[in-house]
Amino acid sequence: MYEKKDYYYELPEELIAQDPLRDRASSRLMVLDKETGGVTHRTFRDIIEYLEPGDCLVMNDTKVIPARLLGQREGSTGAIEVLLLKRTDKDVWECLVKPGKKMRPGMRAVFGDPGSPELKAEVLEELDDGKRSVRFEYEGIFEEVLDRLGEMPLPPYITHKLAKEDRDRYQTVYAKNSGSAAAPTAGLHFTNELIAAIEAKGVKTAKVTLHVGLGTFRPVKADNILDHHMHSEHCEVSKETAELVNSCRNAGGRIICVGTTSVRTLESMSSDDGVLNAGTKETEIFIYPGYKFKITDALITNFHLPESTLIMLVSALAGREKVLKAYEEAVKERYRFFSFGDAMYIH
Predict the structure, then answer these.
(1) What percent of the chain has pLDDT over 90?
(2) Which CATH number do you get for residue 93?
(3) Do 54 and 95 fall within a single domain?
């Protein structure tokens, strides 16, 4: 159960979704009963049938920033790529850079028109895992400059380029707090109309924030998963959300998380007796089989990469063998996998 290879499954490459569906809620939905292992095949908008009055649906309202910048070294034609990961000061970011050998402290880069660049950058220092601390220089508002020059940092398994007019499809309809390098993809299936119908049924909705880092896509390299170290991600829970979740639990309602990031936020911010606390923190929580969930009762999620920390998390909730059997069924039924793919509801 602690061997990485225990979380492997065969996935035909053609089942990796390359483009989002036009109608968000028309994705397929596999419903997995975590007690019996039984599966049912539905459409995502049918999720409302599985939610009851008094339940609380918890969503991650992080917003993906167009964090991929393509430019060149100042005074040179050498192409460079900078991927923003985490803001550490007003104009200083922790970044991934290419080519790393050229991006040493003191190296400067320009983005936009090389003759009159809108954005300049200087590498301040080298950090762990090949990252760099980079300071940016610009006129006006950084987010507006980034919106003009940056690209959405799609996961490496998506090879199709996302057109600028389709940027919102890699964003949830409730995205609000900018800071993610990747989308909390389980939420991509929701429309405003579906959320309104769910609330009209008497289901409470609550928002948390976890800014997704690229550690989400980094493979587990250690053969024994206990040797894997998670990268930290910023998460926060408001007083309003903490009160809503706690009152729902006290009244006997279920806490249903939309996405693994919502799970990790709730489980990071709760005490051992299952009380959710308001506040912010940098979380490195790694959830794998054997973990005792403090708050999460059910989960809406996508289909995850073999041997990833995310398939380990869903295995902790539903059991490794049941999850792998469900994934085998999903492959057989030609479900679409990963970020732009279909959904699973574990209850």
Answers:
(1) 82
(2) 2.40.10.240
(3) no
Same domain? For 188 and 301 the reply is yes
The whole-number pLDDT of residue 39 equals 98
Are 278 and 237 a contacting pair, CB within 8 Å?
yes
- In three-state secondary structure terms, 232 is coil
Q: Answer whether 0.90 is exceeded by the pTM.
A: yes
CATH number reported for the structural domain that contains residue 205 in this entry = 3.40.1780.10
Q: What does the DSSP 8-state code read for residue 332?
A: H
The stretch 65-79 carries a mean pLDDT of 91
pLDDT tens sequence across 281-311: 999 999 999 999 999 999 999 999 999 999 9
Q: In the structure, what pLDDT confidence band is assigned to residue 235 with cuts at 50, 70 and 90?
A: very high
Beta strands in 36-111 (DSSP E): 39-43, 56-60, 62-64, 68-73, 79-89, 92-98, 108-111
User: The tokens of 41 are what?
Assistant: 């095949």
The number of folded domains in the chain is 2
Instruction: Verify that 176 and 292 share a domain, yes or no.
Output: yes
- Residue 216's pLDDT is what? 66
Choose among 62, 66, 4: nearest CA to 233.
62
Q: Are 130 and 58 found together in one domain?
A: no
Please list the residues that pair with 280 across neighbouring strands: 236
Indicate the pLDDT class of residue 165, thresholds 50, 70 and 90. Answer: low
In a domain, 289, yes or no: yes
Overall size of the chain counted in residues: 347
